[in-house]
Fold:
Amino acid sequence: MTEVSQKRLQIAELFVASLGRADVDGAVRLLSSSVLYRVEGVHPLAGTFSADAVVDHLHALIQRTSGTIDATKFEDWLTGVHYVGCIVQVTFHANRRRFSGRVFYLMRFDDVDLID
Structure:
């Protein structure tokens, strides 16, 4: 793995860990100003977000899950020149329900190693 890939992998892990600590400010510091954030699915948090809408969405995610997001295990990593993908075992609670499963994060990086 190249030095750049290793650095980006660490940034990707820090981003997911920041969400798990309900540290939106810490997560946002890792994002490019031109970030585009997509959440797949048919639920209230699904959609495509950019710029300030990403910050609002991350706050909504933390609020909806009452800060219970727990990235318990990073199971696999995929690294490329501009992308890092990771499969993470997560659990959280929302609306008196518990989710436990794997989530795939795919992050593209810009030239200064911020998540784009």
Summary: The radius of gyration is 14 Å. Residues 3-20 form the longest helix (18 residues). The mean pLDDT is 90. The chain has three helices and five strands.
